[in-house]
Design a protein that fits this description.
Helices cover 40% and strands 14% of the residues. It is an alpha/beta fold. Strand 2, helix 2 and strand 3 form a beta-alpha-beta unit. It binds NADP nicotinamide-adenine-dinucleotide phosphate. Keywords: Oxidoreductase.
Length: 335
């Protein structure tokens, strides 16, 4: 199968690329930067003949995927903006996220060979942050974040709210497109919570780590113990496998999946694991009070595991694999 992957040079996208390559598929990796695309390819010398790179424009610049979809059988659309330093939620995050989804679906509609588009949404499109603490609720793919567009673009809304809205309204755009246009392909959306694990995309230095792993590194490097807002998470390789299985399994068509490890996490727990697993951990990890991992809600990770054949990786293994890699990067940076 020939698959276009957007966001391929990002944290999750690079794992999606690896999962596809390991199963023998052909990958076209989309990036705004040819240089980043080439680095992704260079890092996979054994698969050079299975990867080609296509350059696309920023989602704020009228992106078209018309060229990128030529000849592909399926698409995994991972790319979406995430920047908590923005000042205009609508212009900088919500409209670009929607534009990205629209552009990929319009291009797929014009390319008969495309049979399915898998879209990375987020638990942010599912969670109701104002939900009362009781009774206990298990979020499933039926739940939608109730945030309104007006609330999200209000002057006093911060970038976290902007991100939550960008994921919700971009995903809604996808479902609306399919309902209205009835294209010859179907879609699957996947809504992950915090995602952790080793890095497989081009990261030049630790300071450029993606948001979720940057938090783990803050713990391991003793910088600070971030607040654990929601104790739900998933391993990046498990998530990548879910994307690829969602593309390959016929019966997944038209479904929305939530995904989550059955284990809860906190940054304090991550610190304890680093202390136990690494000799230097006791001296270095960020100290702090025990953080609550119980929470008032759960997230359904069982349906996707059953239907797409996933086995969840433990938090211990995930933290260990990432920290080993980050420490090696640090050594290279300081030598
Ligand atoms: N990491 C998490 O914990 C987490 C949790 C839930 C959901 N997600 C979702 O998973 C997806 C990937 O996240 P990630 O952690 O892998 O992020 P990431 O490392 O920042 O990768 C995202 C990629 O999207 C592309 N991109 C970003 N802004 C863009 C824009 N304005 N126009 C065009 N392309 C743009 C970039 O590719 P180029 O620079 O190569 O163009 C970037 O590499 C996103 O949809 C995110 O919302 C992530």
């Amino acid at each position: 199968m020939y698959v276009l992957v957007t966001g391929a040079t990002g944290f999750i996208g690079a794992h999606v690329v690896d999962e596809l390559l390991s199963l023998g598929h052909q990958v076209r990796a989309a990036s705004r930067s040819c240089e980043k695309g080439q680095l992704l390819k260079q890092d996979r010398p054994d698969y050079a003949s299975q990867i080609d790179i296509v350059q696309i424009a920023d989602f704020t610049q009228g992106t078209s995927f018309a060229e990128a979809v030529q000849g592909v059988d399926g698409v995994i659309h991972v790319a979406s903006p995430l920047d908590y330093t923005i000042t205009d939620n609508e212009k900088d995050m919500i409209l670009p996220a929607i534009a990205g989804v629209k552009a990929i679906l319009q291009a797929a509609e014009g390319q008969e060979s495309v049979k399915r588009v898998v879209i990375t949404s987020s638990f942010a499109a599912v969670l109701d942050v104002n939900r009362a603490a009781t009774p206990h609720h298990t979020y499933t793919a039926k739940d939608w974040n109730p945030l309104t567009y007006e609330e999200a673009i209000a002057k006093d809304s911060n970038a976290i709210i902007g991100y939550r809205a960008s994921k919700k309204f971009a995903e809604l755009e996808a479902w609306k497109f399919v309902e209205e246009r009835k294209p010859s392909f179907d879609i699957v959306t996947i809504c992950p919570p915090m995602t952790f694990g080793p890095v497989r995309h081009p990261v030049s230095k630790l300071a450029n780590l993606n948001e979720s792993n940057a938090n783990l590194w803050k713990v391991a490097s003793g910088a600070e113990l971030p607040v654990s807002r929601v104790p739900l998470w998933v391993n990046v390789r498990d998530l990548a496998k879910a994307h690829v299985e969602a593309l390959l399994r016929k019966e997944a068509g038209g479904k929305r999946y939530t995904i989550a490890s059955p284990e809860k996490f906190s940054y304090k727990l991550a610190g304890d694991i680093v202390t136990e697993e690494f000799g230097w951990g006791r001296e270095r990890v960020a100290k702090g009070e025990k953080q609550n991992t119980e929470g008032t809600h759960d997230l359904d990770g069982e349906t996707v595991a059953r239907e797409l054949g996933l086995t969840y990786t433990s938090f211990r293994e995930t933290v260990k694999a990432f920290v080993e890699q980050a420490v090696a990067m640090e050594r290279r940076e300081t030598s």
